[in-house]
Predict the structure.
Amino acid sequence: MTIFPFTEATSIQFQQPLPKTSDVVIIGGGVIGVSTALFLARRNVSVTLLEKGRIAAEQSSRNWGWIRQQGRDADELPIVIEAQRLWRQLAQECGEDIGLKQTGVTYLARTDKEMAGFAKFLEIAQAHGVDTRLLDQGELASLIPAMSRPFKGAMITPSDMRAEPWVAVPALARLAAREGVTIIENCAARMLDISAGRISGVWTEKGRIATSSVVVASGAWTSLFLRAHGISIPQLSVRATVAATAPMPEIYAGAAADERIAFRRRQDGGYTLASGGSSQLYIGPDAFRHAGKYFSALMANPFGTRYLPAAPRGYPDGWSTPRRWNADEESPFERMRVLNPAPETSALRAIDRGFRELFPQFTTVPLKASWAGMIDAMPDVVPIVDRAAAIPGLVIATGMSGHGFGIGPGIGRVLSDLVQGNETGHNLYRFRQSRFSDGSPIRLGPSL
Ligand SMILES: Cc1cc2nc3c(=O)[nH]c(=O)nc-3n(C[C@H](O)[C@H](O)[C@H](O)COP(=O)(O)OP(=O)(O)OC[C@H]3O[C@@H](n4cnc5c(N)ncnc54)[C@H](O)[C@@H]3O)c2cc1C
């Protein structure tokens, strides 16, 4: 099983011709776009999914693979609970082993303050019937006996799961294709075609497709795409570095984290590792434009993000990245088929150090791969899942803020109803686009 995320070198799997017309066009082949396409196809809607690079090549194959209810924003939790059920169902339906396992998620606490924070989430979990509970020092020591540090305790949600992202999302795409979704890789959407104030089609690098309904699920590229149509959302992206070990003895079957190190057992017997507080923001025009909206997030975790003066060429918020283009010229999206940031060296050192400090019996950490991803962040750490008021026919689903893999199928199901004008079964008020422009205060969701 490969554990390298996808790049432009990954072979193309989905290459259907561009249809002339489609009921719905989805822009972005990550977990959100793929899930939305699948659930729409199940409602006898014709769906075309456009991916500028490869399915899941950006965040959706680069994430830690945690599928968690634990620690979620109270308004996201009902959708994640649904997503957990859908993951189980889809794992059966796709007929492939996506590494889905219920092995729990555990947050480790060093201080009473952290334990008190966990207790707050416990109330939310209990109100929704989630099996989260607190562990004292002794219970934690028997759950993960090999840890060197004396923690105060922990919070665990035993029903939380894990899956292998680089296997799971392409498997869902294959299922969607079998159920009738037209999936086209290497096909960037350049612009929306808007006639009489509403969507009439999408201009792609392979031509125009007529449609009355578009879902923009373009991850870190969404704000760049929307801004070209006069829609401003305060989305930025931050680089996060990940490492993977070779197979090693089992220290814990699930996923766990303290403020220094996060680890998750993989199906191949290795661990996926990351270090807390190691993300970087490349400063660009959007970072300046939206800085004020990120004030609360900055105050809550002043040292959580490092700032770099400029993104590499061609990144969504790069200084030289074009903000406007025409439908018949190359767009920034096809110029960078796969956003594939280099892992940060100091983050890799912190991962190595953090893991060895916690598990001193491993004198070396057998790292066999490392990579990074650009997380699409929102100022309040919850996504936008909404119809765009300015352009009828347009739905925005973005800013999953580092936790969109687990909730992905839930958001996909919700979007399939939102697009069709059905009741979604969830209250989406928290995820409205207008919260950033209607004078509402920024209400921070939890960050991990
Ligand atoms: C390091 C890291 C660790 C994470 N860990 C977890 C975790 O453990 N659990 C969890 O739940 N979440 C996690 N996440 C977050 C999760 O991976 C994302 O929230 C989720 O994958 C977002 O899915 P998406 O479909 O919105 O975006 P993406 O997966 O980024 O997909 C968007 C796609 O849109 C395509 N695209 C963009 N513009 C265009 C265009 N104009 N035309 C055509 N295609 C376009 C892109 O090429 C891309 O493939 C993590 C993320 C990272 C980076």
User: Anything to note?
Assistant: The domain at 24-104+159-436 is CATH 3.50.50.60 (FAD/NAD(P)-binding domain). The mean pLDDT is 95. Residues 77-93 form the longest helix (17 residues).
